[in-house]
Amino acid sequence: MTASRKAILMGLVAVALWSTVATAFKIALSFLSVDILVAISCLVSTVILVAAAWWRGHLGLVYHEIQAKPLLYAVLGLTNPILYYSVLLRAYDLLPAQQAQTINYTWAITLSLLAIPVLGQRLGRRDWIAVILGYFGVVVIATQGRFEFGAIASLLGLLLALVSTLLWAGFWLANTRLKAEGSVSLTAMFLMASPVALVLLWWCFPTELSLKGLLAASYVGAFEMGITFLLWSAALKQAENVSRVANLIFLAPVLSLVLIQWVLGEAIHPATLIGFACIVPAVIFQQRST
User: Fold this and answer.
1) Closest Cα partner for 45 from 53, 56, 57, 35?
2) pLDDT tens figures, 12-42
C-alpha cells in the first residue's frame, strides 16, 4: 500500500471514530456527571498519549517542551481538555446531540472572527459571507426553523455550545506559537492538565461508579482525544496531498447525524438538516478564502 493510500485510510478511520463521539458523549452523560466524564476521559487520553510518546522515543521532547514553556502549557492544558470539554459536555447535557454537535462545528468560522483582534487580520467579502451563512445555520438549528426566542430548547445550552467554539478557536490560535510536533505539544498539554483532572476526580468522585460509565468515559478519552488524534496527525504527515486528507473531516458530521438517529433514537429535525446545509458550505467557503 502506498503512503498516499495509507494516509487516506488512516484519515477515514479517524473520521469514522470522530463521528461516533457525539453519540458517545450522550451515552456517557447518562451514566456520569460532566466533571467526572471530563476527569476520566482526560486521564485515559493522557495515558494513551504518553504511551505513544514513549513508543516513538519522544518523551524527552515532551519533557523539554514543558520545561521550556511551563506556564504556556499549563494555560493550554487548562483550556483543553479541562475547560473546553467541561463547557462542551455541559452543552451536550442540555441540548439534543444533533444541535450541540452541529453548532460546535462552527468553530472554524469563530476562528476567522477571533483572528481579527488576536492576529490583526482583516476579513474579506468571502469571509463575511461565510460568517453570515454559518451563523444563520446556527439560528435555524437553535430555533428549529421557527425563528422565535422561545423555540430554543435551552438558552444556556446554546450559549455553552457557542462558547465552546470560542475556546477551541482560541486554543488553536495559541497553538500557532508552538513549534513542536502536534503529538508532542498535545501530550505536554494533557500532562499539565492531568493533576487538575485528578483533583476533579477526587472532588467529584461518586460513591458508585458503574462499569458502563467507566467504559463510556474511557471510550471518549481514547477516541475523541487520544488515539484518533494520533491517527489524524499521522495521516496528515504521510499525505502527498494534505487537502485531500483534510477534506475528509467534512464526512464526520454527516456520519454523526446518522449515528445520533440510529443509536440515540433522536429524530433528526428538518431544521437541523437545513442549518447543517448552511454551516458546512460556510466552513468550506471560509477555508478556501484563506
Assistant:
1) 53
2) 999 999 999 999 999 999 999 999 999 999 9
